[in-house]
UniProtKB/TrEMBL annotation:
InterPro entries xrefs: DUF2577 (IPR022555)
Species: Aneurinibacillus thermoaerophilus
Pfam families linked: DUF2577
Source lineage: Bacteria, Bacillati, Bacillota, Bacilli, Bacillales
Protein name: DUF2577 domain-containing protein
Top-rank taxon, per record: Bacteria
Length: 155
């Protein structure tokens, strides 16, 4: 049994239930069998539509849930590096803009041995959202389609 089959078994045993109704009451309607399928993005967000391999009708955004990692999103991060730090830049002016203009020099990077770098409460923006033609791994359950990740096949 491979990892996908194990995950499918666990999810089916948990008997995924539908979204809560207004007021917070949960319905007990079972959404059906969980299946893993491959598909292709026909139109990127915000008007996302996908084509599941073997189905003739495209799936529209109203029936799709996308993993956040496949959307443009921001994350808070803290980064710390001990030891050797390299800062890449085309010129020192980019790193130290207050230097007098006559002291401008071009470098590929500046290397600082035995130095530390720390970024606290920084932010990284991920821009690699789904694009037309992307192959995707989809979990379907009832009328909902969960895009889990991009699919890559090495041939």
């Amino acid at each position: 049994m491979n990892g996908f089959q194990q995950l499918a078994g666990v999810l089916q045993q948990s008997s995924y239930k539908s979204q809560p109704k207004a007021g917070g009451n949960h319905t007990s309607q079972d959404l059906g069998e969980l299946r893993f399928e491959l598909g292709t993005v026909l139109a990127p967000p915000p008007d996302l539509s996908i084509q599941i391999d073997g189905l003739s009708v495209p799936i529209t955004k109203e029936f799709i849930v996308v993993a956040e990692d496949l959307c443009s999103h921001k994350r808070k991060v803290s980064i710390r590096n001990q030891g050797k730090t390299k800062m890449y830049s085309e010129s020192v002016d980019d790193l130290y803009p207050k230097l007098p203009p006559q002291s401008s020099h071009n470098y590929k990077y500046i290397e600082l041995s035995n130095s530390e770098f720390e970024l606290i409460d920084g932010e990284i923006e991920f821009l690699d959202e789904l694009k037309k033609g992307d192959r995707i791994i989809v979990a379907s359950c009832g009328s909902l389609y969960f895009i889990l990740d991009r699919a890559v096949r090495y041939t």
